[in-house]
User: Which sequence fits this backbone?
């Protein structure tokens, strides 16, 4: 297991200090989920919530890798991959509200497709696709780049990296607004930042986002068997964390010069990010307030994204609660 953890740290370019989070916080939860999954005759669904840059994608990757080490067939899905195409969001901007051109908020995801994918995974179906979204181009990948779920076939050649064998034992789905509940309509009137005040003076965008959350996202939440939350200290941390994300995205582009020269890069500057995160502020602050009471496991982060404490619900009593580490 030590070799596995070290390999994971290296592949994810994580500092050695991340091992403490793995050993103290994440592996005990993974073990609990593994034991719970064995009692089911269907896949076990894990929902992960965390604001931008909180580490939810890394957590999902670790859990999935750990489950695979235990000979469980696991898959990690990002809600981000269900973003509508750039063209579709431009149509939303024309027909509903200009702010919907920017990906991120509820209403900019294809939740009908998300529901279809999760339902097929729950039924153990095979031979379907899971979309992939390219943040560098701010658009969906071509379908031949999507993840393919396939039934095992005798004497079949080894599948490529974009294939997963069916049926799947554990599904991990993460997203910044995954698990968020809608706000009372009375809370929408007062703008939380300049973007809402100047670009949504009549609350049309806010109401559309809120109604989308209620009608298209919340109905899928009961599918989750466990909710995990990486809780930021406040929304103030998001700008720096999101900037670090964007820098990593830039470093991962294999053809950065070509991408930038053709004008197709969606990588943002620090100034762009300052505007971009205002789209997320209202719901992020709402989630930080209301989700911890509903989540099964809440890891409290400090400004350096280190875990300061963990709190669990009754179903996870086997997980030790740790504070002031």
Assistant:
């Amino acid at each position: 297991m030590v070799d596995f953890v070290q390999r994971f740290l290296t592949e994810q370019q994580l500092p050695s200090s991340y091992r403490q989070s793995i050993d103290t916080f994440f592996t005990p939860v993974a073990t609990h989920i593994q034991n719970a999954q064995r009692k089911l005759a269907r896949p076990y669904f894990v929902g992960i919530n965390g604001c931008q840059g909180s580490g939810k994608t890394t957590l999902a990757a670790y859990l999935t890798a750990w489950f695979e080490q235990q000979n469980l067939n696991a898959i990690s899905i990002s809600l981000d991959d269900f973003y509508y195409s750039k063209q579709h969001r431009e149509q939303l901007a024309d027909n509903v509200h200009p702010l919907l051109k920017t990906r991120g908020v509820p209403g900019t995801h294809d939740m009908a497709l998300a529901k279809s994918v999760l339902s097929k995974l729950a039924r153990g179906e095979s031979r379907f696709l899971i979309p992939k979204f390219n943040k560098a181009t701010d658009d969906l990948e071509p379908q031949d780049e999507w993840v393919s779920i396939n039934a095992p076939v005798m004497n079949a050649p080894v599948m490529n990296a974009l294939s997963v064998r069916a049926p799947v034992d554990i599904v991990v789905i993460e997203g910044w607004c995954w698990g968020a509940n809608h706000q009372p309509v009375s809370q929408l009137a007062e703008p939380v930042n300049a973007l809402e005040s100047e670009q949504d003076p009549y609350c049309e965008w806010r109401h559309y986002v809120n109604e989308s959350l209620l009608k298209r996202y919340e109905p899928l939440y009961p599918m989750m068997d466990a909710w995990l939350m990486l809780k930021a200290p406040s929304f103030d941390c998001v700008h720096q964390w999101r900037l670090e994300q964007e820098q990593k995205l830039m470093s991962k582009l294999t053809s950065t010069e070509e991408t930038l020269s053709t004008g197709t890069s969606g990588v943002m500057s620090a100034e762009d990010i300052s505007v971009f995160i205002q789209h997320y502020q209202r719901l992020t602050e709402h989630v930080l307030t209301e989700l911890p009471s509903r989540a099964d496991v809440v890891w409290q982060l400090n400004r350096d994204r280190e875990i300061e404490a963990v709190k669990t619900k009754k179903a996870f009593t086997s997980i030790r609660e740790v504070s002031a580490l």
The mean pLDDT is 88. The longest strand covers residues 44-50. Residues 30 and 66 are 7 Å apart (CA to CA). The two ends are 24 Å apart (CA to CA).
